[in-house]
Specification:
Layout lengths: L1 H13 L5 E7 L6 H13 L17 E9 L5 E8 L10 H4 L5 H20 L6 E7 L7 H12 L4 E6 L8 H7 L5 E3 L8 H12 L1
Parallel strand pairs: 1-3, 1-4, 4-5, 5-6
Antiparallel strand pairs: 2-3
Helix pairs in contact: 1-7
Length: 209
Amino acid sequence: MIGRLKKLISDLFSSTEQDDISIGLYGPPNAGKSTLANQISMDLTGEEMSNVSEVPHETRAVEKKEQVTLETDDDRTIDMNLLDMPGISTNVDFQDFTEHGLEEEESKDRAKEATKGIVEAIKYLDDVDACLVVFDSTEDPYTQVNVTIIGNLEAKDIPILILANKTDLEDADPSRVRDAFPQHPVLEVSAKEGENIDKLYEEIIERLS
């Protein structure tokens, strides 16, 4: 798996001559994209970049953190632009929010914002150089939403690294993510606990610097 991951990142970035690389974090709602974005941003800049909530579609507009610099002890440096995308969904129902205690009017507004955010995230596919696709490894990954996300990225020939997130949870089963998308490399992480994030940094810095 590590070999495939190294090849992916090597292929991904070897042909990129620009100084900054735009990396989009894609995935369904509540997969942990914003938690991962915050983990990376806190590690590398000391600041969080996104709000996190149990309510779906907390991120309803693209959150950006530019000039995120990753440095190594041997002075290799990479500048990246992180783009935390709204969760992709094939359907946004305001009742998804009322179930979490929001009032109906607020829920309807939130549903409109979430739909607008999904459109914005899809438009950004023309501007990203690579994508980290975040899936919740406690849930069945072979869903219409996830297949749609992967299919859109493949159609645009955007390099993909899948992250099987939430490995700190008892029900986590990253093997299901691998089985669902065997054509892509999968890295197991816990964005919340920071588990295996160093491995992600190591692979990126090795291939980018």
